[in-house]
Amino acid sequence: MTRNASDLLAPAVAVLLVAVVVAAVAGAWPPFVAVESGSMAPEVERGDLVAVTSTDRFPWGGLVGATEPGAPTRLGGAGDVVVFNPPNDGHRPILHRIAFPVTAGEDWTERADPALLDGDCSAIASCPAPHDGYVTYGDANGEYDQSAGIAPVVREEWITAKALFAVPDLGWFRVGVDAAVARAGLLPTAVGVGGLAAVTGGFGALLLGRIAARRRPSDERDER
């Protein structure tokens, strides 16, 4: 039983160790985020898993907007893609691209793309800019977040990480777990996921054991 328990726990421990190593390199925890909307399509789709790093981690440090000189090209466009969470918003963190930085009191619509605006500064709640920060947008959206009312001008301290690359479809498990936690609670979800992992690991170990047992007699004959 001890050996079987070790066999079941080994994959989980390996995954945890990989996550810890990635987090140490990236400087962010968790080092991956699951995408729950299509606002960054087509490069990043719902269900993708995005690797992230801290905003000051070498060599990815700093925040650069799409319109700034030397903007990095990641996830299908220019400018850093960041994870931010406006306080008192009541929604999940947002993964969107930085357009450009703004300063408090600035009419930032004067240097914005008119195609991503719905009206002039007087029609936008976040204009003039109420504080220093960033104008942001989702690649698949038709407006800046601040024009569409998705988010106010994003303060730098609201940004928790920046995206490096996306892996298609690997985020569905995380999306499902988050949905289960929201519906059933953390403890029932943990018990359910743990039970499923144990059953899956048990069947896998049993299957591998039977395959090994079937191959053993033929191997012994070959040795004779």
Automatic annotation (TrEMBL):
Compartment list: Membrane
Annotated keywords: Membrane, Transmembrane, Transmembrane helix
Single GO cellular component term: membrane
GO MF assignments: serine-type endopeptidase activity
Transmembrane segment boundaries: 186-208
Gene Ontology biological-process annotations: signal peptide processing
Occurrences of domain Peptidase S26 (ranges): 13-98
Domain of life: Archaea
Any Pfam family hit: Peptidase_S26
InterPro entries: LexA/Signal_pep-like_sf, Peptidase_S26, Peptidase_S26B
PANTHER family in alphabetical order: SIGNAL PEPTIDASE COMPLEX CATALYTIC SUBUNIT SEC11 (PTHR10806)
Protein name: Peptidase S26 domain-containing protein
